[in-house]
């Protein structure tokens, strides 16, 4: 079972949606509009095998030193074959290239991320000035990072984790 991880292209967006949909139906991940995925395609990497998308993940820059790994998905038939780890490694490399020094994730997969150096965190991991700037972001992922009340129903049961690069 061979696969490769590469930067996503616009032609991958519908495949990313197909990977996302089962997780949305299970209420594990929030759904995304097609336009939102096209707007963010440059944040994604995909894993593919024989031309079929088998996984994806995105790196979203939140601040000068902080990024988030989001929308990490591996197709059921490819779980436990190293695909998720390869996607995270690719996203970490991109984060380093951008000069980020910390990566955040909000996840149910605590053990998976812990094996990759992430640790559970509390609430206040940015200083008050940065917090006030981040409050201005319209991005729901930033709201989840800040643990704002209006996104709490989306984050129940998730663990907030951080890794220093």
Can you describe what's shown?
This protein is of the alpha+beta class and about 160 residues long. The chain contains seven helices and seven strands. β2 (about 45-50) and β3 (about 50-65) form a beta hairpin. The longest helix is centred in the middle third of the chain and has 16 residues, at about 85-100. The model has no long low-confidence stretch (mean pLDDT about 90).
Number of helices: 7
Count of β-strands: 7
Structural class: alpha+beta
Give the overall shape, derived from the CA principal axes: globular
Q: Which percent range describes the beta-strand content?
A: 25-35%
Q: Into which percent range does the helicity of residues fall?
A: 25-40%
Output the radius of gyration: 15 Å
Tell me the distance between the termini.
30 Å
Give the topology string: H per helix, E per strand: EHHEEEHEHEHHHE
Q: What composes the largest sheet?
A: 7 strands, mixed
Mean pLDDT figure: 88
Strand order of the largest sheet: 1-2-3-4-5-7-6
Low-confidence stretches: none
Summed up:
The protein is an alpha+beta fold and 165 residues long. The protein has helices at 13-25, 34-39, 83-98, 110-114, 128-134, 140-146, 152-155, and strands at 4-7, 44-49, 52-63, 66-74, 102-107, 119-120, 159-164.
Give the tags.
alpha+beta; about 160 residues; 7 strands
Give the topology, please.
Blueprint: E1 4-7, H1 13-25, H2 34-39, E2 44-49, E3 52-63, E4 66-74, H3 83-98, E5 102-107, H4 110-114, E6 119-120, H5 128-134, H6 140-146, H7 152-155, E7 159-164
Parallel strand pairs: 4-5
Antiparallel strand pairs: 1-2, 2-3, 3-4, 5-7, 6-7
């Amino acid at each position: 079972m061979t696969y490769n991880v590469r930067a996503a292209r616009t032609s991958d967006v519908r495949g990313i949606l197909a990977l996302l949909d089962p997780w949305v139906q299970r209420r594990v991940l929030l759904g995304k509009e097609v336009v939102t995925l096209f707007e963010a395609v440059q944040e994604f990497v995909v894993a593919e095998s024989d031309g079929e998308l088998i996984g994806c993940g995105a790196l979203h820059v939140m601040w000068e030193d902080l990024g988030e790994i989001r929308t990490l998905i591996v197709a059921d038939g490819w779980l436990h074959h190293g695909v998720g780890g390869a996607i995270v490694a690719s996203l970490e490399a991109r984060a380093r290239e951008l000069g980020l020094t910390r990566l955040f994730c909000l996840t149910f997969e605590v053990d998976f991320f812990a094996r990759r150096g992430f640790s559970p965190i509390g609430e206040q991991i940015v200083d008050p000035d940065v917090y006030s700037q981040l409050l201005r972001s319209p991005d729901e992922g930033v709201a989840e990072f800040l643990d704002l009340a209006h996104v709490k129903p989306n984050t129940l049961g998730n663990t907030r984790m951080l890794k220093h690069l």
